[in-house]
Amino acid sequence: MKTVVKILKYTLAALGVFLVVLFFIPNTGYTKVWSYLATILLPFAVDIVRLFGVKVSREFEMCYLIFLIPAMVLGIDFDLYKVFYPLDKIAHGFSGVLSAFGAKEILDQASGKPDEKWFKVLWTIAFVGFVAMVWECFEFACDQIGGTSMQQLIAPGIADTMYDMIVAMIGGVVGTIFIFVRKTR
Question: Mean pLDDT in the chain?
Fold first, then answer.
């Protein structure tokens, strides 16, 4: 699995570099330099987290890297969200599931590890909501500062933001149920 993770990570980063190069070639239609730079950096986010002593499983890292393909590369870099609108909601749903599993990994490392299942479930769902909110703030900032239109897939602003957060929360609840039901069997 370690080899597959490396291949995915460096392939995504190389694609980001390639897209940045295309950005500087006139009339190619590649205009999202900030998105392409993010495509270079995001595959290494787990490595950055590990620098702070946080343990992240290879399974989670692989799921995260696979998530970047439809969410970042296909949806944002290649504008497939505009062509196939459901991809946006699918990506937000999977982001909720991924956030739930990330919350579990953080919770597993917490000192004093609370044993009460209700606390774990509540904390996991709250973490999913936090991640969804932070992402929507990022989209808003990109729209305001960079002149993008990340929040205008179905309607300007609030409708798309709310749908995205609701779908992420649904994915997070599904992920949370999977995590805690699977553990009890």
Answer: 86
Please give the Cα distance from 61 to 45 (Å, whole number).
Answer: 9
DSSP for 52-111 reads TT----HHHHHHHHHHHIIIIIIIIIT-HHHHSTHHHHHHHHHHHHHHHHHHHHHHHHST
Does 53 reside within a domain?
A: no
Whether the CA torsion 169, 167, 81, 65 is positive or negative: it is positive
Q: Which residues of the chain have pLDDT under 50?
A: none
What total of structural domains would you count in the chain?
1
Among residues 52, 64, 75, 36, the alpha carbon closest in space to that of 164 is found at 75
101, 174 Cβ separation under 8 angstroms: no
Is 137 within a domain? yes
Query: Which structural domain range is residue 127 located in?
Result: 79-184
* Domain annotation covers residue 34: no
Name the 3-class secondary structure at 24.
coil
For the stretch 97-132, pLDDT in tens is 999 999 988 888 876 766 788 888 888 999 999 999
Contact yes or no for 113/107 (Cβ under 8 A): yes
**Is residue 28 assigned to a domain?**
no
